[in-house]
Amino acid sequence: MTTAIEISGLTKRFGCLTAVDDLHLQVPSGQLLALLGPNGAGKSTTTEMVLGLSKPDSGTLRVFGHEPVQAVRRGLSGAMLQNGALLADASVMSLLKLMHGLHAHPLPLGEVIERAELGPILRANTGKLSGGQAQRVRFALAIMGNPRLLILDEPTVGMDVDARRRFWATMEELADHGRTVVFATHYLDEADEFAERIVVLTQGRVVADGTGSQVKAVVGGRRIRFNSPEYRWDELPAVTSATREAGGWLLTSSDSDATLRALLPLDGVRDVEVTAPRLEDAFLDLVA
Question: Domain 3-216 is classified in which CATH homologous superfamily?
Answer without folding.
Answer: P-loop containing nucleotide triphosphate hydrolases (3.40.50.300)
